């Protein structure tokens, strides 16, 4: 019974935030899915900024993602570039207008107000509980974690630079804070037992 109550609380919080999000995006002629695509692209790294990664992260079909990307490209909120090593791969990035829009619309004011009412200690406990719950749900669903490079098993520090040990490529400082579709939590193997 307790688990069902937690689920209902998370579902209700999500509904309230999505409702507020719909209002904001409707005012500028976009759908919430368009905002979700922009938000994802604002926080993902260079390995994770493809159509397939967007679809996987958001749990959407490739068709829905392609249509959303077309809308965002027409509104000049994102740009496409061809991969230097594989011409079949298209990378997506936010334009200055796309970045400005994300900064203008997030975080939601209602969330800021609620957060201000919660003490730092309470918020820290909620943050930890939600992150743990998300991690467990991702494992149960066998979905990727999409975590930041710095918390990844493949993250390394070589002589004077950061390194992705999966791709064997150097990472820019800004990439280390972004999320990656190939993320492997450091504690993944210890939690499998």
UniProtKB/TrEMBL annotation:
Major location category of this protein: cytoplasm
Source taxon at top rank: Bacteria
Cellular compartments annotated: Cytoplasm
InterPro entries: HTH_MarR-typ, MarR/SlyA-like, WH-like_DNA-bd_sf, WH_DNA-bd_sf
Domain HTH marR-type: 3-135
Pfam families: MarR_2
The name this protein goes by in its record: MarR family winged helix-turn-helix transcriptional regulator
Species assigned in the record: Methylomonas rapida
């Amino acid at each position: 019974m307790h688990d069902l109550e937690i689920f209902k609380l998370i579902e209700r919080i999500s509904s309230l935030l999505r409702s507020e999000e719909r209002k904001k995006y409707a005012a500028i002629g976009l759908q919430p899915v368009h905002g979700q695509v922009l938000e994802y692209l604002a926080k993902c790294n260079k390995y994770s900024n493809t159509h397939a990664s967007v679809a996987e992260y958001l749990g959407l079909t490739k068709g829905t993602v392609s249509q959303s990307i077309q809308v965002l490209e027409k509104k000049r909120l994102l740009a496409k570039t061809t991969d230097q090593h594989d011409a079949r791969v298209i990378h997506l990035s936010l334009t200055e207008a796309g970045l400005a829009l994300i900064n203008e619309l997030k975080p939601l004011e209602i969330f800021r107000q609620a957060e201000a009412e919660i003490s730092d200690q309470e918020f820290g406990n909620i943050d930890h509980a939600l992150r743990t719950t998300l991690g467990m749900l991702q494992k149960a669903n066998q979905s990727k974690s999409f975590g930041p490079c710095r918390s990844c098993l493949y993250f390394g520090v070589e002589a004077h630079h950061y390194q992705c040990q999966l791709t064997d490529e150097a990472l820019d400082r800004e990439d280390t804070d972004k999320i990656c579709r190939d993320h492997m939590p450091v504690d993944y193997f210890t939690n499998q037992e």
